[in-house]
Design a protein that fits this description.
The complex is a heterodimer of chains A (about 110) and B (about 110). Chain A is an all-beta fold and about 110 residues long. Helices cover about 0% and strands about 45% of the residues of chain A. Chain B is mainly β and about 110 residues long. Classes of the chains: A mainly beta (about 110), B mainly beta (about 110).
């Protein structure tokens, strides 16, 4: 599996954009980047995913660099409810739903 | 559409006992995966079932097993429980397990082994 590297923790002011980086320098050309988040004691929640183009949905935007070696998850207007652990995952083709979770980034949104 | 449902939500067992956890995937989803989450090891993949067959398996001892029924519902079993098996057990489902598919997680079963 391609390994991902994320900062262990980040702070963000409420109402500001939260930019969460992820490094996946060994990603292969057909591997997707997925972002999930986990609020304490709940199951991970899907946020967004992409292959090479930037993606946006109602929750967030995903910016993938042209060489695909890194990506950034953007929460445009962070709220207190966005406080969670955010996981960046590279999904290996043919591995089904066998995902490798790293330590993630603990995002703390402060008032 | 109902989400992934896991039962029970909380469970307390003693060492040496066995336990069975249940997972009902989202309607129409045929791939069901199980994960273990502990403070020390984080989220770790246990196994995946698709059309009643185990398709992938993580690095866990044989005490951990699972199965999937024809309606895609899945159970996992842990025999001869150890203290270290205390964890949040998460079930996830998707249509077929393709790398382009979203994977949806349940709220988990919190297992405490005393």
């Amino acid at each position: 599996d391609a390994k991902t590297t994320q900062p262990p923790s980040m702070d963000c002011a409420e109402g500001r954009a939260a930019n969460l980086p992820c490094n996946h320098s060994t990603i292969s050309g057909n591997e997707y980047v997925y972002w999930y988040r986990q609020i304490h004691s709940q199951g991970p929640q899907y946020i967004i995913h992409g292959l090479k183009n930037n993606e946006t949905n109602e929750m967030a935007s995903l910016i993938i660099t042209e060489d695909r070696k890194s990506s950034t998850l953007i929460l445009p207007h962070a709220t207190l409810r966005d406080t969670a652990v955010y996981y960046c995952i590279v999904r290996v083709v043919g591995a089904g739903n066998m995902l490798t979770f790293g330590g993630g980034t603990r995002l703390m949104v402060k008032p | 559409k109902a989400g992934v449902t896991q039962t029970p939500r909380y469970l307390i067992k003693t060492r040496g006992q066995q336990v069975t956890l249940s997972c009902s995937p989202i309607s129409g989803h045929r791939s069901v995966s199980w994960y273990q989450q502990t403070p020390g090891q984080g989220l770790q993949f246990l196994f995946e079932y698709f059309s009643e067959t185990q398709r992938n398996k993580g690095n866990f001892p044989g005490r951990f097993s699972g199965r999937q029924f024809s309606n895609s519902r899945s159970e996992m079993n842990v025999s001869t429980l150890e203290l270290g098996d205390s964890a949040l057990y998460l079930c996830a489902s998707s249509l077929e397990g393709g790398s382009y598919e979203k994977l949806f997680f349940g709220s988990g079963t919190q297992l405490s082994v005393l």
